[in-house]
Amino acid sequence: MCTLVVLMVLTLIIPLVFVLTPPWHPRQIPSAPFWITLLPIFFEIDQEQIFKKYIAGPLYEHGAIKIFFGGQWNVIIQRPAFISEVLKKEQIYNKSGNQNKIPHSVLAEFLGK
Fold first, then answer.
1. d(CA 31, CA 35)
2. Tens digits of residue pLDDT in 34-47
3. How far apart are alpha carbons 11 and 29 in whole angstroms?
4. What does the pLDDT average to over 68-84?
């Protein structure tokens, strides 16, 4: 019985670890902790406050940051050299808009393709 419970817990935890662990690539870019996307659920905090407290520092220092949003890891880019590289090497850097990441959401409907 105990073995079955442990096996069930591992079956639930292992997929979450793979989804919530930041990807290795791109390297040398910091990752925002996964839990910051959950803050508005538990506290009276808006996206601007989250950005200023958790994202802005590493983003401006490194030029990019990895963040979990829309059910997947995304890279927010601020440095012009990085933006240029992403736009020039479209075959390497997979880009998807909100209509692909979170279809039928308000953002997807508003921004379109």
1. 11
2. 888 888 889 898 88
3. 30
4. 85
The gap from C-alpha 79 to its chain's centroid, in whole angstroms, comes to 18
Cβ atoms < 10 Å from Cβ of 84: 11
Residue 79 neighbours by CB distance under 10 Å: 13
pLDDT of residue 62: 93
**Which residues constitute the domain of residue 51?**
2-111
HEC profile of 39-93: HHHHCCCCHHHHHHHHHHHHHHHHCEEEEEECCEEEEEECCHHHHHHHHHCCCCC
Residue range 4-25, pLDDT digits in tens? 888 887 788 777 666 667 666 6
Instruction: Residue 32: count other Cβ atoms within 10 Å of its Cβ.
Output: 22
Per the structure, the count of domains in the chain is 1
